[in-house]
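Sat 14:20. Reprocessing the chain from the morning session after the first attempt stalled halfway. Input below, unchanged.
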Amino acid sequence: MRKEIKNDVLNEKLIHSKLKNGLNVYVLPKEGYQKQFAIYAANYGSNDNQFVVPGENQPIKVPEGIAHFLEHKLFEQEEGSVFDAFSKLGASPNAFTSFNMTAYHFTSTGNFYECLDILLNFVGTPYFTDQTVEKEKGIITQEIVMYQDNPSWRVFFNLLKGLYQNHPVKNDIAGTVESIQRITKEMLYKCYETFYHPSNMVLFVTGDIDADRVIQQVERHFKDKNVSKQGEIKRIYPNEPPLVASQMVKDKLPVPRPLFMLGFKDTQVGQGGQALLDKMILNDIMLDMLVGQSSDLYSKLYEEGLIDLSFSAEYTGEKDYGHIIMGGESPNPEKVVDMVYQEIERLKKEPWDVEYFSRIKKKKIGEYIRMFNSLETIGVQFVSLVFKDIGLFDYIERLMQINYGQVKDHFNRFFENYHSSVSIILPN
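Finished this time. Tokens:
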């Protein structure tokens, strides 16, 4: 099944083909571009620690950090390093594990189709032994310890632990030193076979490439592989109450100035598709109006020396959780937080500047159009949206339809009875 999706605003077209084994392949041709980019992603992240395998009845619970561990191990093949194979072709590979997905990608300036074969082969060929799993535990332990000393990492995860009581998003993606010791070769194969099934994955390719050739190449890759159909994976997440676990989390590290993050928990979750897309867009616009660099509050905080250019704010929205996070460095984080709360209350009562809303909306449209100049950015954006049942072009189309009244109403609803937490790292 081959389908072509066009967007006149972006002047882009997306070619989609769904293979018999369930794999969705997408190609975004970019004529004249010197680089090519491919990303192969599984709808599987660090949150997926409890699940029911299709065809089975009993839930399985695995240690924290296993998705990230699996990402590391796939790069190690029986015949040698995957990095060396890409390097010989002049390509640059990498991978990442997030709370909700694992993605493997490469950027090339030639030999693209050979690189695509390597990507499909190594992600599709797990190789784990007891010895290599034990060796990896030492490597990941060092990584976990290193990140524990990273102030930006610590302030972020301290905030998530403050915001969430039960949801696994509060746990470090890499797991803990204790949890990864419990990972076995058998567990890795079980998780791989469950979540790395083609029907739970997506391949996205962009650059000056031949879409038909890509699709045929992927079909040939799977032609002789006996991939059975797989039912839906039942993911089990604990019930998350609306109240936060802690309103304030303070910690100390050797930093020159305090770091802080203020988080607001989204309690209206459980939907993907257009409902989630609308919320993402509304939150993006309202955050820009509240604390964006052209907002009254940002100017006031900056002029008083309470924030600097490290300050930022964003909304993260998934089907089963969501939160707004803002923060940066500040000599007085608690004063910044108080001023944010005050500004929220003021904006709930007073009308907003409609012209300011129009400028912010135009800026957001421009940012999304500009994003299509970066192949890597398009690819990561695509896979992050597709697993939420949102199309790459849906964002810009919906953004253009959003009006002032929708943003104002959403702001008042979101902050009507909000649940927030603050994380602060102080110099020790």
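The longest helix spans residues 130-148.
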